[in-house]
Amino acid sequence: KIDRPAVARLLQSRVAAAAVTAGPPRGKVETALAEIWAGLLGCPVPHREASFFALGGDSLLATRLLGRMRRAGLYGGSLRELFEHPRLKDFAALLRPGAPATATAPLEPDPANRYEPFDPTDVQRAYWLGRSAEFALGAVGSHWYWEFDGADVDVDRLERAWNLLIARHEMLRAVFDADGRQRIQQAVPYVTIPVTDGGEDELAEMRERLSARIPDPGRWPLAAIEAVRQGDQVRIAFSFDFIVLDALSIVIVFTELAALYADPGAALPPLGVSFRDYLLSIAPDPADQDYWADRLAELPPPPELPLAVDPGQIGTPRFTRREVKIDAEQWKALRERAREHGVTPASVLATAYAEVLAAWSAQPSLTLNLTLFDRRDVHPDIHRILGDFTSLLLVPHRPQTGDTVVDLVRGLQERIWDGMEHGSVSAIWVLRELARRTGSPMASMPVVFTSALGVSDELAGELPFGRQIWGISQTPQVWLDCQVTE
Fold this sequence. Notes:
By secondary structure, the chain is an alpha/beta fold. It is built from 15 helices and 13 strands. Helix 2 crosses helix 3. It is globular and about 65 Å long.
């Protein structure tokens, strides 16, 4: 496992050495900004020459930075300006002090109505509708599946830990009503984990049945766990519906499940807010709707790729996962080069993906559909609760003659950050508006890029009930989903 205290000591020594040369922050604005950076990035208070990217900043952290700045009374500055001026002193020069914002105060939970139905997000609604066979490339669930292999696994103990999680997290008790609204059940039956004694045939049967499972959102539970025992070895299969859990939620599930498996009496942090509270507290910003409406005419199409078959003629699609890994030294070198140029590793990988797609596409300009796992920083517990916080962002890739690799990455990252700054409007709304303007029955962006960097690394090691050995995911109306994890 990563020795995080050792990493922190190394980072602190390097930051301290650089601070001797660059000097500490000057003035109230630089000092306040430096303290926010330290809290957000988990590092010592940076010197005034420090770069947001060199300290480990990325796009999601940047969006949280803006919210914390407003609450601290620092105004001005945007994601684009942070991208262009990543050094502390340069970005601070764009800010002006003022009274702390009150509009972004933590939301007020509503426990009295926690079991009342509430509307889904645009993405959840798309997942709910998309599993219908009436849509092209439908008839699949928004589904995630992992298998773990472990020795001497106590399945009864795992079962008790899972039921403790169900009692703790409301969205593990969620169902969808016939009108598409979601609802938390106050109480649910105790869940048992079926265990089969068997061999390769039983393992294959479990994988075939669960890996392409299409849960009915109206019937609880939306998660399924099963096991096959071979002597002292146990293969455990987890099947989750993305309609109630995003990538960070799945990390939370396994982190807390491991803690409760190791110690059923483990004291987990209290949860003072719910997914329902969160959704009822947010709304699209009309200014963001105007931003996207103004860009519809210039939005490139999705990659126009050579197809073996018309997607509309496919009955039930089956997904295949193809994996490739780069070694740790290559990845370290890539991250360091990215930070030298003031770009994020995720932007580098997204650009590489876009360039490969452009080589196969009928035209080089195209739009990528990016999956984001951002949660607005509206409550101290918001990053500990479960729910499908997933949002989608449409990002144009417009290569120009003479562009260098750095030019391409900077251009794509700039458009990503511009879009994120107007992220109260979902890509689903943009596609509906595009279909309305063109008169098309539906518009889709079926080629996806999903970065789980910074999220997936928490599950890099072996959990108490085994090591993850196989997985697959599927999403309605998607052709390709390039997923990057650490």
